[in-house]
Amino acid sequence: MNWRTNFKFFKRIVIKVGTSTLTYPNGKLNLQRIEGLVMEMSDLHNQGKEVLLVTSGAVGVGANKMGYKTVPRTIPEKQALAAIGQGALLHLYEKLFAEFGKIVAQVLLSREDLDERTRYLNATNTLEAILNMDVIPIINENDTVAIEEIKFGDNDTLSAMVAALVDADLSIVLSDVNGLYDCDPRINDQACLLDQVEEITRQMEDNSRSRGTHFASGGMITKLRAARICMASGVPMVIANSNNHHVIRRIIGGESLGTLFVPRESKMHARKKWIAFGTVVHGKLHIDNGAENALLNRGKSLLPSGITRVEGSFDRGMVVDVITTDGREVARGMINYDSRETALIAGKKTSEIEKTLGSKDYDEVIHRNNLWIKE
User: What number of CA atoms fall less than 13 Å from residue 348's CA on the CB side?
Assistant: First the structure.
């Protein structure tokens, strides 16, 4: 498939706008650029497309209003600045979108909202309802209440989660970079911009470990993590520079702006998508080579006999990582036993579960239907 030429036919589009796009280097809002992007999104909406805006900037706007030169490191201070900046940012968006006859809705999400399956589905239903009302949702992380352990960490990840949540047709990530290069262009002036990526390699990640501006929370590495989520969810994703004139219109029109991350051919089932990306991981199961082969090559469930070690404290129904002997995370799944029970039956045959625990509810520690294999 020639993905770019088909963008104009896509209906549901997630657009992520980074702090570096919204602000000047001094932290003040770049009003001209914001107005231009709002006009482009409104024009897409006029074409009958569904637009979801994931925006950064609340903490940066708050920091600027309070005269900070950089964002403080402590969580309470960041949360206070987010509370200050969130209202101002939304008011600006609401005012600009209204000039083009558009109604917007604020949606604040935390990682905890997606951790529980019921709340995950409720978030999906809420966004669907907003779109059905012909309203543009403006989405940000709920920084004012999130604690470090349950934060998305950056809005690149949040935008990918939203794209997966609503089964988007396309995700566009706008930033101050042209896209993904084969090496760091700030170090090597021979670096080449990659037009299309079909697989994210470890070398790409190693070349991308840099941060954005003083007011931003991410960098290219967070965008690659977001791309992994989109690709696995069957959603194409484009990283492009917001400095490009009419950048959104040109991407949708099929121009080769930025870097396109090509998705998997088949979209994931909603339940597997939640297991893979929606929930917080609560523990780790270390497995032997036999179990690894059974999971990866034969599509089997995880049995207790293949578990060599249990890490973390978790209850039944929580999601855990599956780790191989060489330390690779190869799978993630919803577990049938709590951490104490799993540790007791680890390494034992299925026939020994009842004798060890006093009862046996399941033969499998993780059933294959509740298991996501990492590609």
Answer: 17
